[in-house]
Design brief:
Strand content of chain B: over 45%
Oligomer: heterodimer
Helix content of chain A: under 10%
Radius of gyration of chain B: 14 Å
Distance between the termini of chain A: 37 Å
Low-confidence stretches of chain B: none
Strand content of chain A: over 45%
Largest sheet of chain B: 6 strands, mixed
Number of helices of chain B: 0
Structural class of chain A: mainly beta
Number of strands of chain B: 11
Radius of gyration of chain A: 13 Å
Chain lengths: 113, 114
């Protein structure tokens, strides 16, 4: 079974803090993704990576950065957390060929106060 | 107009009912179609996927794709309270114009009442 794990299930941070969200997958997948999920807005892609040290912006990259130093690990960084970044953050991975199904982690519910 | 449209519901049915969940889309390049189930405060889990048009059955679940109408469906037979969740459709194309990113519907919340 594909396993995607995320470092925290729940996180509370203060405005202005630098926040690191970690994701690890154990299936040797080439591609990894970070989404945020908000009521009424669905899943929105923040960043994705198709290879080590490679990254591409998704639909809402502002205020976020990412790091992929190893194939199995993909980190999301909130440089200076703001209250509008309170959300559910989901990491996913998939192999580099069709049918492109993505496997998700359990999510991190981040609250910024 | 969104690329993928999905009625958010909520949809409430009695136990044992047949449930029909649907998505429409606008991009004719989509060829891979998926359904995810997401329980409250959990990550989405892949339920089924189909390639191009046609039907696929897995136990009580049937996925249908009608590319001519740009319409996909998920049917749940003999629905159970444990099926209560949010169901998200997702789709992707191939080729240089698409990196294989999934485009998600907003999700339909289903409640199956005992």
């Amino acid at each position: 079974d594909v396993k995607v794990t995320q470092s925290s299930r729940y996180l509370v941070k203060r405005t202005g803090e630098k926040v690191f969200l970690e994701c690890v997958q154990d299936m040797d997948h080439e591609n990894m993704f970070w989404y945020r999920q908000d009521p009424g807005l669905g899943l929105r892609l923040i960043y994705f990576s198709y290879d080590v040290k490679m990254k591409e912006k998704g639909d809402i990259p502002e205020g976020y950065s990412v790091s992929r130093e190893k194939k199995e690990r993909f980190s999301l960084i909130l440089e200076s957390a703001s209250t509008n970044q309170t959300s559910m953050y989901l990491c996913a991975s998939r192999r580099d060929r069709g049918p492109y199904e993505q496997y998700f982690g359990p999510g991190t519910r981040l609250t910024v106060t | 107009q969104k690329e993928v449209e999905q009625d958010p519901g909520p949809l409430s049915v009695p136990e044992g009912a047949i449930v029909s969940l649907n998505c429409t889309y606008s991009n004719s390049a989509f060829q891979y179609f998926m359904w995810y189930r997401q329980y409250s405060r959990k990550g989405p889990e892949l339920l089924m996927y189909t390639y191009s048009s046609g039907n696929k059955e897995d136990g009580r679940f049937t996925a249908q794709v009608d590319k001519s109408s740009k319409y996909i469906s998920l049917f749940i037979r003999d629905s159970q309270p444990s099926d209560s969740a949010t169901y998200l459709c997702a789709m992707s194309g191939e080729g240089s114009s698409n990196t294989g990113k999934l485009i998600f519907g907003q999700g339909t919340t289903l409640q199956v009442k005992p």
